[in-house]
Design a protein that fits this description.
Elements (H helix, E strand, L loop, with lengths): L1 H11 L5 H26 L1 H8 L5 H33 L1 H20 L4 H4 L2 H29 L7 H31 L1 H6 L4 H17 L6 H4 L8 H5 L2 H26 L1 H8 L4 H29 L1 H26 L4 H19 L2 H6 L4 H19 L2 H8 L6 H21 L7 H4 L1
Helix pairs in contact: 2-4, 2-5, 2-7, 2-8, 2-10, 3-4, 4-5, 4-7, 4-19, 4-20, 5-7, 5-10, 7-8, 7-19, 8-15, 13-17, 13-19, 13-21, 14-15, 15-16, 15-17, 16-17, 16-21
C-alpha cells in the first residue's frame, strides 16, 4: 500500500521535516495544556484552600485541596479509555482536538466559581464536579499527544521527542503558572492576589487550549495510524484480556513509581517552600521556574540518550540517582533546620532534574510496548492510572504529617521506598528501543 510505504520511508528518514516539527509542537503544547490545567492547584494550594476549603486546621485545608487535585488524576483513566479508543479508531488529531478544548473550558470555569463564603458547601462541591470533568478531558489529552508525535518523527528522534514532550510540556506549564503568579503579585499586590488574583490563572488555560487547536489544524495525522488496516473495535476490552493484562499491570506500576518522584519534588515543593521554609510567594515561584527549566533540559538530553543506550539504562541510572538524591537532599535540608535560599534552590533543583531524567523515556517506552491499533488506549490507560496513583503523593504526605515540621521526614521515607520499587521493576523489564520502527 502507498501509505505503508510512506510510513516506512518516514521511519527511515535522517532529518526532521517541517511537518515533524509541527507534530512535536502540537504534542508539546497539548501536554503543556494538560499539565497547566492539572498542576495549577498545587502551585496556588494555600489560596485555593482558603477560598473553597476554609478550616481552622491549616494542614487539613491543604489536604482537602490536594485531594481535589487528586480527583482529576483518579478520573483520568476514564478519559483515557474514551479518548484512547477514539484515537485508535478515528485518529490522534480528532481525539486530541476534543480533549484539549474540553480541558480548557473546564479549567476556566473553576476560575469563576464563587468561594465558600459566598455559596457555602456548594463551593467545594462545585470544585469537585469541575475537577471530575477536567480529569476526563486531560486523560484524553494524554491519549493522543505523544502518539501523534512519536509515530510521526523518524526513529532516531523518537527518544528526543518523548523527552521534549514530557519534560518541555510539563516545564512550560509549570513555568508559565509561576511567571503569571509573579507578574500578578507584582501588579496587584500579595493581598489582592490571595483574595482574587489567583483566579486569573484559570482563564489562561482556555487561551492555551485555543492556541493548541490552531496548531493542530496545521498538523498531519500520524503516518503509523494511517497505515493501520484493522484497529481494535474495543481497545480497552482487548487490553484487559488475559493476553495483555500482565503487560498493562507492569506498565502501570512502572509509570507510578517513575512519576512519583515528580510529585514528591515538583508537585509538593511550592508548598514546602512557603509552608515549611516560609519563603515569600514570589521567591517560591522563582525557584520553581529555575527548577523546571533545568528539568526540561535534562529530560530532552536523557530522552535522546535513551535512543542510543536504550530506555532501560536511562531508567536504571536515573532511578539510582533518585534513590540517593531525593531523600538525601531532603535529609540535608531537614538537618540544617533553616537552610538559606541558595541551599534550598540548589537542593531542590537537583531533585527536580533527577525526577525529570527518570520520566524522560517513559512516553516512548510505553508507546513501544503496544501495537499501533492499541497504542493510544494502552499508553493512556497505564499512564493515567500510574500518574493517578503518584498524584496522590502530595495528599498522602500532608495527610500523614502531624504538622508542617513532619512533611520533610515523610518525603524522605516515601521517596526512598518508591525508588527501590522502581529499580526492582525496571530490572525485571525487557528493553523496548526500536519497537516502533518494526511495527
Amino acid at each position: 500500500m502507498a501509505m505503508a510505504g510512506s510510513a516506512t520511508t518516514a521511519a527511515g528518514r535522517a532529518r526532521l521535516r517541517r511537518s515533524d516539527a509541527r507534530a512535536i509542537g502540537a504534542a508539546t503544547l497539548g501536554w503543556a495544556v494538560d499539565m497547566f490545567d492539572l498542576m495549577m492547584v498545587l502551585n496556588i494550594a494555600p489560596q485555593v484552600s482558603a477560598a473553597f476549603f476554609p478550616t481552622q486546621n491549616h494542614l487539613l485545608g491543604l489536604t482537602a485541596t490536594y485531594a481535589s487535585f487528586a480527583i482529576s488524576l483518579v478520573i483520568r483513566p476514564i478519559g483515557s479509555v474514551v479518548f484512547g479508543a477514539l484515537a485508535d479508531r478515528a485518529g490522534r488529531r480528532r481525539s486530541m482536538t476534543i480533549a484539549v478544548l474540553g480541558a480548557g473550558v473546564a479549567t476556566a470555569l473553576m476560575g469563576v466559581l464563587p468561594g465558600a463564603v459566598a455559596i457555602g458547601a456548594a463551593a467545594p462541591i462545585g470544585v469537585i464536579v469541575l475537577r471530575v470533568v477536567q480529569g476526563v478531558f486531560v486523560g484524553g489529552i494524554t491519549a493522543s499527544t505523544h502518539t501523534l508525535a512519536t509515530e510521526t518523527v523518524p526513529e532516531r528522534f523518537r527518544g528526543l521527542t518523548a523527552g521534549v514532550i514530557k519534560g518541555g510540556g510539563a516545564s512550560l506549564a509549570v513555568a508559565l503558572i509561576n511567571v503569571l503568579i509573579i507578574v500578578l503579585d507584582a501588579l496587584i499586590g500579595t493581598a489582592a492576589f490571595d483574595a482574587w488574583g489567583w483566579r486569573v490563572l484559570f482563564g489562561f488555560a482556555l487561551v492555551g487550549s485555543l492556541l493548541n487547536l490552531l496548531l493542530l489544524r496545521r498538523t498531519e495525522e500520524s503516518p503509523l495510524w494511517r497505515r493501520t488496516e484493522a484497529p481494535a473495535r474495543h481497545p480497552a476490552r482487548t487490553l484487559f484480556s488475559p493476553r495483555w493484562r500482565g503487560l498493562m499491570v507492569t506498565s502501570t506500576l512502572i509509570v507510578f513509581t517513575a512519576s512519583a518522584p515528580y510529585y514528591l519534588t515538583t508537585g509538593i515543593l511550592p508548598t514546602v517552600y512557603t509552608e515549611v521554609f516560609r519563603l515569600d510567594q514570589d521567591v517560591a515561584s522563582a525557584l520553581v521556574i529555575i527548577n523546571v527549566v533545568g528539568s526540561a533540559l535534562v529530560a530532552a538530553v536523557c530522552g535522546h540518550l535513551s535512543q542510543h543506550v536504550g530506555r532501560r539504562k536511562v531508567f536504571l541510572v536515573s532511578g539510582a540517582a533518585c534513590l540517593v538524591l531525593v531523600p538525601g537532599l531532603y535529609g540535608l535540608m531537614l538537618a540544617l533546620g533553616s537552610p538559606g535560599t541558595g541551599i534550598v534552590l540548589a537542593g531542590s533543583a537537583v531533585m527536580v532534574m533527577a525526577s525529570g531524567a527518570i520520566t524522560s523515556p517513559l512516553i516512548i517506552f510505553l508507546n513501544e510496548r503496544f501495537p499501533t491499533g492499541l497504542r493510544s488506549t494502552g499508553t493512556a490507560v497505564t499512564w493515567n492510572i500510574g500518574y493517578g496513583l503518584s498524584g496522590l503523593m502530595p495528599t498522602f504526605v500532608t495527610a500523614v504529617s502531624a504538622d508542617d515540621g513532619a512533611i520533610l521526614p515523610t518525603l524522605i521515607a516515601t521517596s526512598l521506598a518508591i525508588a527501590v520499587v522502581f529499580l526492582a521493576l525496571v530490572a525485571a523489564t525487557a528493553e523496548t528501543r526500536g519497537a516502533l520502527a518494526r511495527s
